[in-house]
Amino acid sequence: MIQPTYTAALYLRLSKDDGFAERESMSIDTQREMLTRYCKDHNIIVYDIYADDGFTGLKTDRPPFQRMIEDVENHKVTCVITKDQSRLGRNHLEIDYYMEIFFPVRNIRYIAITDNVDTLNAATLDIAPFRNLLNDMYSQDVSKKVKSALKTRQMQGKFIGTTAPYGYK
Description:
Layout: E1 7-14, H1 21-41, E2 45-53, H2 63-73, E3 79-82, H3 85-88, H4 92-105, E4 109-112, E5 117-118, H5 128-155
Parallel strand pairs: 1-2, 1-3, 3-4
Antiparallel strand pairs: 4-5
């Protein structure tokens, strides 16, 4: 039996909240290397690489993400690959929609490498909705902790801005 050839959209994302600017670029590079190596090892053709560096995963209005979705709708790709499900996004309702409705209706194979998700194998999808929910809850938890830490610093009278105005230390 002949294996179908897939043309993949490699989607990379690193949130501005995931680390420092220097580390972000390295993480994007690491994701790019991991995904291209996976494609090479599995005879998948890379159509394009879509990288959202510094965007939150809670919304899908990220420019490269939307460009990737347009390419899916225009039948330019037959597969979407991410490092893990949280890279696709962290809003569980939106990501569940893409994984359970949008991609299947368009016969798009979705692979999340480190989460061991591949829509060709239904058994790998059993826990996927729960993982999406946990990814969403993680973002909400981090947001609460950051806001709490900032409020504590404010109550202590500490400076919480990024830089002092011109002429002040």
